[in-house]
Design brief:
single chain; mainly beta; Jelly Rolls; 2 helices; globular
Amino acid sequence: MSLTADKLATEIKVTQYDFDPNSTAATAVAWVDMRDFSKLLVAFFRTIGTSAVTLTIKAGTTSSGGTTATVVTKTVSSEPDAVGDYIFLECLASQVAQKAAEDGYAYRYVSAYVSFATGTDEGVVTYILGGPKFAYDGLTADYVS
């Protein structure tokens, strides 16, 4: 008997991004639309370097950011300073909506922002979008270029 399980792939959307900004400035990883999701979990995984990391989630008015505002910031108690270390940061669509109401902007998109103390550091950033309004096969799909 063959059974294909595809339960989580219909309930969450997972994407991953290689993060190598060659900078110490806070840099957007990837803007995603929160319209059809109620929550976002961001994971940062260290691949190169040992410097301090700042992880923030910002909301924006357009798919490229537009007007932005900080929704949540990670206060790191123990730096992910070795290859293989990882940290998480989460935000809810309700937090994005609250920030939009406070600021008077129509925030709909979110992006993780990562900054390193050393410009040569690198990592992998994973987005896990949950609470979809519409679950369907292929919400999480392979990406091979």
